[in-house]
Design a protein that fits this description.
Belongs to the transferase hexapeptide repeat family. The protein is α/β, with parallel strands linked by helices. It contains 3 helices and 23 strands. The termini are far apart.
């Protein structure tokens, strides 16, 4: 991670976490306890919001973006596209193929695959080991669970949650949680 950021002109990585303030993460300091601390530190910082919750990540990203530029984290892997928006994280072992488009604040997690000509919307999360087939379109704020597969050319509506191990063989036209093989909407149980 550090070498990729250094190549982008970022000289250091700092974390913000109230519980870890004054400690370090992977050898990097945790000097900030709050968003207010980051904003007070000045505009020479570049940030990436790493929260797992898509909506909270979007809100914090937008709040910080008013005053501080976003960075992009690309860990060692295979990234073959230039269409990666600000605040995106592409983690170790992930593959993002030719002409894929990744929206702002999105996480492409460990060993996930986003094939050629895909579009993944802003503030989405492609969990570890998930695969999105060529030409698929994933909306904003979507969670594709660990080991899930979205077949080529399929569309997943904004706000949808695709459960771990699910197989999305047909378009998902609305939000909600989709699970199984093939993926079907999960029914709510009234208690």
């Amino acid at each position: 991670m550090a070498s990729q950021l250094t190549q982008a002109g970022v000289r250091s990585i700092v974390f913000c976490d109230h519980a870890l303030q004054g400690q370090s993460v992977c050898g990097y300091p945790v000097p900030f306890a709050s968003v207010q601390d980051i904003l007070a530190a000045g505009s020479d910082l570049r940030v990436v919001v790493t929260l797992g919750d898509n909506e909270r990540r979007r809100q914090l990203h937008e709040r910080l973006a008013e005053r501080i530029a976003s960075a992009v984290i690309i860990e060692p892997g295979r990234v073959y596209t230039d269409h990666i928006a600000e605040g995106t994280q592409i983690l170790a072992g992930a593959v993002v193929n030719v002409e894929a488009r990744i929206g702002a604040g999105t996480i492409i997690n460990t060993n996930a695959v986003v094939e050629h000509d895909c579009s993944v919307g802003s503030f989405s999360h492609v969990a570890p080991g998930a695969v999105i087939g060529g030409g698929a379109v994933v909306g904003d704020g979507v969670l594709i669970g660990a080991g899930a597969v979205v077949l080529p050319g399929v569309r997943v509506a904004s706000g949808a949650i695709v459960g771990g191990g699910a197989l999305v063989a047909r378009d998902i036209s609305h939000g909600g949680t989709w699970t199984g093989v093939p993926a079907r909407p999960q029914q709510r149980v009234n208690r």
